[in-house]
Amino acid sequence: MLVGKFVVAYVPTCQEKEYYLACACEEIYAPPSAYFSLFGLSVKASFLRGVLDNIGIEPQVERIGKYKSAGDQLARRTMSDENYEMLTALLDNIYTNWLDKVSSAKGCTMKLLKMI
């Protein structure tokens, strides 16, 4: 934050990342046509095994541990339980950090912010 400077955010569209950055400002402005979409965080995973099967390619992936999932996008058609558990824990941690920072910037509790 700049010392002695007044910082204002302007958000014509606002999702979690834009709101997170805007909370560092003293004021947030949005036009009447602004679109706010604060639904939480998500993750997407792509799996190519079906496509590779269709073109006759069989990937050879060696898995070293159950939480080592880098090769899953080539070797699997869906997400493994371990990968799901790992990504859920990661998202929970990131979202808790997001709630903590936004609630402290806005002067409210995390519990109140979750209810909004």
Would you summarize the structure shown here?
With 116 residues, the protein is mainly alpha-helical. The chain contains five helices and four strands.
For the largest beta-sheet, the strand count, sense and barrel status come to:
2 strands, parallel
Helical stretch tally: 5
Instruction: Strand order, main sheet: write it out.
Output: 1-3
Q: Radius of gyration from the CA trace?
A: 20 Å
- Multimeric organization: single chain
Poorly predicted parts: none
Could you estimate the helical fraction of the residues in percent? 40-55%
The gross shape turns out to be elongated
What does this structure look like?
- By secondary structure, the chain is mostly helical.
- It contains 5 helices and 4 strands.
- The strands form 2 sheets. The protein has a two-stranded parallel sheet.
- The longest helix has 26 residues, at 81-106.
- The protein starts with 7 loop residues before the first strand and ends with a helix.
